[in-house]
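The instructor's notes for this session suggest beginning with a concrete chain rather than abstract definitions. Hand out the sequence below and ask the class to guess, before any prediction is shown, which regions might be ordered.
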Amino acid sequence: MSFSVQELAKIAIELQSDIGHADRFARLIATLRQLLGCDASALLRYEAHQFIPLAIDGLAQDVLGRRFTLDGHPRLEAIARAGDVVRFPADSDLPDPYDGMIPGQESLKVHACVGLPLFAGQRLIGALTLDGMDAEQFDSFSDEELRLVAALVSGALNNALLIARLESQNALSGGEATDSAPTHTEMIGLSAPMQQLIKEIGIVAASDLNVLITGETGTGKELVAKAIHEGSARAASPLVYLNCAALPESVAESELFGHVKGAFTGAISNRSGKFETADNGTLFLDEIGELSLALQAKLLRVLQYGDIQRVGDDRSLRVDVRVLAATNRDLREEVLAGRFRADLYHRLSVFPLLVPPLREREDDVVLLAGYFCEQCRLRLGLSRVVLTPAARARLTGYGWPGNVRELEHAIHRAVVLARAAGTGDEVLLEPSHFGAGQEAATGAAPSVPAMEGMNLRDATDAFQREAITRALTANQNTWAAAARALEMDVANLHRLAKRLGLK
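After discussion, reveal the predicted structure:
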C-alpha cells in the first residue's frame, strides 16, 4: 500500500494552515491516524532528555500531562537514539509507554508500534509514535513512506518551535536575541485560566518589576515564582526562597538582612541575610502576609532605596534584588484591617498575578493526574501506572479544596494503596483508591486510608501521610502550625514528610 499524492498533500496542508494555532498538531495526527489506520498516535517534543506530548489521538487524555523520560521508557529511548524509522516487533520485551492508555483497551498491551524520530538537521526535536492493536497493522507501509511523513512533520514542528522561541526572545529582550538561561519550570495546563497565567508570566518575567503572587493554598505559587525568575534577565543569578510564616519574630530580621558578630546573644560571627545572598538575583518571599509591621517597614525601605543594614551594623549595603512575594491572604483586606502596610502593598502589587484554583481548571485535572502518575511510576520503580476511566471521572468530579497539592498527594496515596493491594509492578488506579478524599467532598466523615492487604510499614506510612496532609490543609499549609497540631518538632515533621514523599 502506498500513499497517494492527494493524501500527502492533505498532510502538508494540515501542517501549513494556521501555523501558530494550538490545535494544528491535533488536526495533523488525527489525519495521520486515519491515513495509517492507527489505533493511537502521538506527537512528542524532545527537551532535556524527555519527550513532552504536544498532541494525541486515540489515547487517554492524561497522556498529555505525562512527561516521558528516556531513562524511564526504553522504547522512547530507542526511538531517540535510532536516527531512522523504528519498528518494534509484537513480542518486544520493551514496555510500551501507552500500555493500558488506549480507551476501550485498558487491559490490553499495544501490539504494533512504530516510532519516527523528528530532526532539525542533526538535532533531535521530537518523535511521532504510531500504535495499533493488530501486530501487522503497519507492515504495508515502507520505511521510505514513513520517512517522508517524518520529514513533513519535522519541518512543521521545527517551524513551530522557532516561532515559540522568537516570541519568547521578543518578550524578554524587546525584540533582540538573548543569551539568558532557558526556562526549566514547566506549568502543566491547557485550560483558559492556566494559559492566561502563562501568558502573564511571560510578560512580567521580561520586566524587572516586583510581583505579588496570590492564590489559595496548594495552587502552585512557588512554581510561578520559579517560572518568572527563569524567564527573566536574572535567570543566571540565584533565586533565594524564604518562608515568612516559618520565621520566629526574634530571627526574622537577621534572616532577611543578616547580622554582625556580637549583634545579639548567639551572634558569634558575621552572617549574610537573604537579600545579600540574592544580590543580582531574585528573592521569593512566601507567605509575606505573616511579616510583622516593623519588618514590613524595613522591607519597604529596601524596595525604595536598594540598601540594607545588617542587625547591629551602622553601615548600609547596596543590593540589587528583584522581590517576588506570595500570599494566600487577601492583602487588601489585611491593609484595611491595619495588619499590612498600604505603601508596601502598592509597591509589591504593580503587576499582581492570581494563580487560579484547581476547581476553575477542570480541564487540567486529568493532565495533572497523568503528570503525577508518571512521577510516582519513576519514584517507585513501577512499569506503569494507569488511571481507569472511572478513576478519571472521579478526579474530575471532585472540587479539590487543597488544589494541585491535594491532587498530587491523592495520586501518590492512591498509587501506594494500589501497589500494596496488588501484585507485580503494574498499578491500575480505580475510584476506590481515592476514597478518603472523595468522602470529604460529599460531606461524609473523613476516614483514614483503607489498609487491607498492607504490611505494617506501608500501613503506617499511609496513615502518617494522611495525617500530615490533613494537618497542613487545616493550617493553611504552614508547616510550623501543622507540627504544633501534630504535637511534634517541626524539623522532625519536615524529615518525615520528605521520607513519605510529601515534599
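Then share the key points. Residues 143-173 form the longest helix (31 residues). The first strand starts at residue 40 and ends at 47.
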